Amino acid sequence: MTIRVIPRLDIKGPNVVKGIHLEGLRVLGKPEQFARYYYEQGADELLYMDVVASLYGRNSLVDIVERTSREIFIPLTVGGGLRTLEDIRTVLRAGADKVSLNTAAIRRPALIHEAAQRFGSSTIVVSVEAIRKPDGSYEAYTDNGRERTGVDAFEWALRAAELGAGELLVTSIDREGTGKGFDLELTRRIADAVSIPVIACGGAGTVEHVREVVTEGHADAVCVASLLHYHAVKQWGLAGDFSEEGNIEHLKRRRGFSNIQDSTPPELKSALLAHGIPCRSAVTESAHA
Amino acid sequence: MPEQSYVAIIDYGMGNLFSVQRACAQVGRRGMITSSREELLASEAVILPGVGAFGDAMATLRRLDLVSVLRDIAASGKPLVGICLGMQLLMSESEEFGRHRGLGIIHGDVVRLQPSIADGRTLKVPQVGWNHVVPTDGATWTDSFLDGVMDGEFMYFVHSFYPRPIDPHVRCSLTTYGPTTFCSSLCRGNVFACQFHPERSGPQGLRIYRNLAAHVLRTLEGIRS
Prior knowledge:
Structural class of chain B: alpha/beta
Oligomer: heterodimer
Structural class of chain A: alpha/beta
Radius of gyration of chain B: 17 Å
Helix content of chain A: 25-40%
Number of helices of chain B: 6
């Protein structure tokens, strides 16, 4: 088996954004540009998460997926605000390979079973967003960490797997965007308890954090954002004018995120390989085949 | 004829047909998503994709009356490509949730990947991710659908079951997942099938589509001359 490295693009309207604890969003650039860059850099999959779709419409997301899937020949997972089988069908038709469900699934768990039956288990990723409580247990949240559910995150992960999820995306809201490392305990408890793959998300600030969540957290795949995004932005500089669309001061100043060491997919994978962690080595020839 | 020519991508309600269609476009072929017998028969090549359950897929192919036409196409010399579940459907039978008869185009069965423990961690089933494909002993991929793919190249897999063809000579590549080494692609004349998703396997996967396109062009030129 190989460990997958999955850049996560948080999308708001037409832009890739990045926040801390899934709030305080900063604009980083256009999703298509990030997607092409990561494809050429040997990313194993891509994750698009529409961070405000739970609140607003998502026509632009469908357009972005459509454009991306024309030129990117690796798996693309799309999540954020998908509520019904029809919503899932719409994003799959636009070219997504998998969908990620959270809010709608936790409100009505049968959706997981219905979606797995209709589209195949391997198409359905259930996103478990968790916050650690003072007693050491974890509570599941929805709406990108805005709404608490009262549901135990560990129980919910097991239930989602039983209902037919093909993979679990496990995000620590506490760590998300902080660069302080993944929540290893959360990841390992879930990864050891289910037979389906677990994708760890939230907190990667260094290459070492990624190694840890694989060897100690038993993650089957890792989602990374800030760790790779800032390097990507530096590569091509600031193209276009995003000043109407959000906070861009951080881009103008060309400052890195605190706690984040920039990296690239090939660099990250070389480091994993050096630690004996199998992963698909970077594509050596041009990705423009 | 060439301007209306197309690759038929069988729509039986399973899987991401659109990524297959876009991979066809990327290598200069028009992919038509269809479940019509007539359109399959009139196509330049047929792709049977698929994600999901074997039994449901066979039931749908029967309901759409596509079983006999697929067997006829396999026997006709027209390229027939099975991907993922589409590869498994070419086999005689599957043990997925009970016993199900397949298309019987390739003799052999489909069995479940065994979960296992290695280095203190569970090897997950389904296998989701990138894995190596290597040629079978003494085989070469020159002039096959894998022509130009590097020995040991990574391809993208999503599956819980794998096919076991009886005739070892049809095996094109092998892949190892935990304790299991299985046939990850097979070829017999005009029939090619792979357990991985070439349309999701980056530039190396697109080579397989490019080889299919070249095969189609040679055939079309043969008809014209």
